[in-house]
Every structure is written in structure tokens, then in C-alpha cells.
Write a structure and sequence with these properties.
Length: 248
């Protein structure tokens, strides 16, 4: 059993409303303690209200993206400094939905991770293969390529990121990697991190992709799975709470 404390992060994607958020956060707050670290990554407009709602609690919060730029004429972008201004703890970078719909490549993902860390915001760096890549036997090569540029770009700060393995074919599809499939990739990623930093043994590698209350415990029991990045199920209070309890 690893000594790493588990981390469960909800990715709300582009869902929510002020009323729905208050209800969801109220339920999560009321269900503590979990015995694991828990965070929610919310849409930008809800960051400050989430910060106020969670102030004084042990629940953490973050954003779902961050600009690679420090500041400037980048309409629509949100900088790491702005996130830091609110006390934002995490920023997801390289989510497969951003890679697919916003053409984010490996170098941009690495630059975003660097920008976040530069302002004390922990990047949750997502890597993962598509179904076609898995079926072509390319999983290892793909995730290693995605992670290696981030490791190279962050250099000595690489140990400060959180990594999330999210097979694209499992995101929002109801199809989950088996605990063994996920563990095999997590072990590869841990070995890659170990080659780059002596702190890899304490770094968190989360699994994401259709994690639900009924599969969370088996996934979290794997030696290199340190928690989860939870999409759809993080919007349902009962499901998210059950997943957080499975991590505790
Ligand atoms: C995600 O959005 O990161 C995710 C893993 O989604 P889901 O849990 O819905 O598959």
C-alpha cells in the first residue's frame, strides 16, 4: 500500500449554475471528512464564489485551464497570476477535450503547466491515448511522448505537478480502463518520472475516465493510482461523495 495520500478532483467541465453549485458544494462540505484530499475544478466565472464557499474548509478548488502567457493581448485567456490572485490551488492542463477541440499540442500543454507552476498553481497534467492508438499498440509511446515534453519544460520543478492518466476512450463514455490496464500505464508513468526526478515516489498520478462509485475502490487500490480526476460523476453529489469516500 502506498503512503501517498489520495487526491480526488472533480472536473465540472462546462456545467453548473450558481444555484446548482451551491447545492453541490454544500453537500460535499457536509459529507466531510473523507480521509483523502478533495478538490473541484470549476468553470472560470464560478472561481471566486467557489473560493468564498469553501473558505476555511479543507476542500480545495481549481480551474480547468490556464493561459501559457503571463499577460497581454490574449482575449479570452485567463492567466496563472489571475488564478493565483484568488488563491486557486490547481489548474487542469492538457485535458483531452482541450487537446481535441482547441488543438492544444504537447508543447502548449507543457508551457501552460510551466506558467501555472510559476505562480504557485499546481498543474494537473492530463495524458492519455485514443482508442485507435491503444488498438495500434501505441499507448506507451503516446503517453510517454506527452509527458516527456512536460518533464523537460518544467525541469527541476517537474516533481511539483500532478499527473492524470486519462485514456481518451474512457472519458465520458462509461467505458473504464480495468484497474490492471490503468495500473500498467501508471507504473510506466511513475518509472518515467523516476528517471527525471528523485521525488517521483511521492508524486500523485490520478486516473480519470468514467470513474463511478462502483469502480472507484478497485481503481484506487492499485499501487500507482493515487486518486482520480472525475468528470460526469463529480456533478452528482451522492456519486462524488461516494468516490471521495472510496479514496479515504
Ligand atoms: C474528465 O472529464 O476528466 C473525465 C474523466 O470525465 P468522465 O469521468 O466523465 O469520464
Amino acid at each position: 500500500m502506498s503512503t501517498r495520500r489520495k487526491l480526488v478532483v472533480g472536473n465540472w467541465k462546462m456545467y453548473g449554475s450558481r444555484v446548482a453549485n451551491a447545492e453541490l458544494l454544500g453537500a460535499i462540505l457536509g459529507a466531510r471528512p473523507f480521509g483523502a484530499d478533495v478538490a473541484v475544478c470549476v468553470p472560470f466565472p464560478y472561481l471566486s464564489e467557489t473560493a468564498v464557499t469553501l473558505a476555511g474548509s479543507d476542500l480545495r478548488w481549481g480551474a480547468q485551464d490556464v493561459s501559457a502567457h503571463e499577460q497581454g493581448a490574449y482575449t479570452g485567456e485567463v492567466s496563472a497570476a489571475m488564478l493565483h490572485d484568488f488563491g486557486c490551488r490547481y489548474a487542469i492542463v492538457g485535458h483531452s477535450e482541450r487537446r481535441a477541440y482547441h488543438a492544444e499540442g504537447d508543447q502548449l500543454v507543457a508551457d501552460k503547466a510551466k506558467a501555472a507552476l510559476g505562480r504557485g498553481v499546481t498543474p494537473i497534467v492530463c495524458v492519455g491515448e485514443t482508442l485507435a492508438q491503444r488498438e495500434a499498440g501505441e499507448t506507451e509511446a503516446v503517453v510517454k511522448r506527452q509527458l516527456s515534453l512536460v518533464i523537460h519544460t518544467l525541469a527541476h520543478c517537474a516533481s511539483e505537478m500532478v499527473v492524470a492518466y486519462e485514456p481518451v476512450w474512457a472519458i465520458g463514455t462509461g467505458r473504464t480502463a480495468t484497474p490492471e490496464q490503468a495500473q500498467a500505464v501508471h507504473a510506466l508513468l511513475r518509472a518515467q518520472l523516476l528517471a527525471a526526478t528523485p521525488h517521483a515516489a511521492v508524486m500523485k498520478i490520478l486516473y480519470g475516465g468514467s470513474v463511478k462509485p462502483d469502480n472507484a475502490a478497485a481503481l484506487f487500490a492499485q499501487p500507482d493510482i493515487d486518486g482520480g480526476l472525475i468528470g460526469g460523476a463529480s456533478l452528482k453529489a451522492a456519486d462524488f461523495i461516494a468516490i471521495c469516500r472510496a479514496a479515504g
